[in-house]
């Protein structure tokens, strides 16, 4: 006769699981619905404190980096940093053999109209600066910078990098811009600019 396995093991186990009716406790329901009521009323009852007068007070011109106020007077240092640094460097010393220095340059320190015309129309060809010949391309800024910006950046250059020459007025830039309004080409280095010097 085959012996049946005894039931001990089965008896030792837990009873088979079965579903019981376990309702969510009243207290939990109460807490959840109280939270819900609080959340909804919070949205409707809370005072909005994002009134515009409490927010960011900066004007558009501040964010654009232009000083606020009368027509946004140009800041020469800023114009320089945005338009000239890549070539003439933050020190104004240029790069030997490639970009000429602005510090102590006879072109920067010449009569107002000379640097103004250099910025308006740009330069190509051979240009001698402080005894060294360069032959690069100086871009024209007449379509990029306003009269006030050209005046400001030149005034900045003439007062920094060891230079101590006078400011340049926006009127001078305007006059030279008008005088050269038909000019399309950049100045041809020493050849053109030496003539302008006289
Ligand atoms: C893409 C490079 C480049 C940028 C940007 C540039 N320059 Fe020049 N600049 C030159 C080069 C190159 C020359 C020399 C041109 C030549 O050799 O014919 C020059 C010449 C000059 C000169 C006459 C020579 C001297 O050293 O004094 C002045 C003044 C000058 N730049 C001012 C400026 C100012 C101010 C700005 C910014 C508004 C500016 N440049 C932006 C490349 C640049």
Automatic annotation (TrEMBL):
Start-end of Basic and acidic residues biased regions: 177-187
UniProt-recorded name of the protein: C-type cytochrome
Spans traversing the lipid bilayer: 27-45
Cleaved signal peptide residues: none
Gene Ontology terms for molecular function: electron transfer activity; heme binding; iron ion binding
Organism domain of life: Bacteria
Chain positions covered by the region annotation Disordered: 177-198
A Pfam short name: Cytochrom_C
